[in-house]
Amino acid sequence: MSGPDVIVVGAGPVGLACALKLSRAGIDTLVIEAEPQLNEELRASTFHPPTLDMLEEFGVTAALIRQGLITPTWQVRMHPSGERAEFDLSLLKDHTHHPYRVQCEQWKLSRMLVTQLPGELWFDTRATLVSQTPDAVKLTVERGGEPMELECRYLVGADGARSAVRKALALGFEGVTFPETTLLATTRFDFAAHLDGLSGVNYCWAPTGTFSLLRLPGEWRVSLYPDDDESVEAALEADAIERKMQHRAARGAL
């Protein structure tokens, strides 16, 4: 068989961590990614103590902490009254090296893992078809728009909820979809200066529904929802986002 021992499809944090672990074990690994570069959308923004412990193996935890915000507590709050239950992660100090959460953009972790990766990473390479023989996995990809056949001993599908690998293998994806549509907005408005006792991570209950306020370096991430009679498209309009943000903290333009 020609080709690497393992091909990992998807260059998100899961695919990159998997490839790095395999490469450090001496296993020839190729990562392919459909997009032309690492995805730098905000996406996930919280790293929990077990994840921080696990990432120490790759030598990136300290850098992740430096580029993020240590958040030792998190809250469940009533809004606008400010009543709250606060959870102190320092109680885990005997069970983890990192008794806190770190608020940091997901793409920063991906960038760190890429710098550690000894194997190859092919961007603009989209998996389209998977087949198997007694000796190898055959993967058809489009690289730069051109078809290409690859072979490996093992294939890892780390290409997300719409996984091309999973679909090619006709594997089900059991579960249900939440009926709500969540809109994520970021703002440099400092909610902590206007909402008493706010933590870096806050899950809030209000008469108009739930929302979250998550602090990141230099900005806040806010979850918003369309009103009952409002379409998603209308909810994405600037004036609609402004109106919803004002319900969180009415202090001039956010």
What is the strand and helix layout of this fold?
Blueprint: E1 6-9, H1 13-24, E2 29-32, E3 46-47, H2 49-55, H3 61-67, E4 69-71, E5 73-78, E6 84-88, E7 101-103, H4 106-116, E8 120-122, E9 125-132, E10 137-143, E11 146-152, E12 154-157, H5 164-168, E13 183-187, E14 201-206, E15 209-216, E16 219-224, H6 232-235, H7 238-248
Parallel strand pairs: 1-2, 1-12, 2-8, 5-14
Antiparallel strand pairs: 3-7, 4-7, 5-6, 9-10, 10-11, 13-16, 14-15, 15-16
Q: What would the principal axes of the Cα set say about the shape?
A: globular
Structural classification: alpha/beta
Rounded Rg: 22 Å
Total number of β-strand segments? 16
Annotation field: number of helices = 7
Residue fraction in strands: 25-35%
Adjacency order of strands in the biggest sheet: 6-5-14-15-16-13
Helix content: 10-25%
Task: Kindly report how far apart the N and C termini lie.
Answer: 59 Å
The largest sheet, given as strand count, sense and whether it forms a barrel, is:
6 strands, mixed
> What is the mean pLDDT?
92
Spans with pLDDT under 50 lasting ≥5 residues?
none
The arrangement of helices and strands along the chain is EHEEHHEEEEHEEEEEHEEEEHH
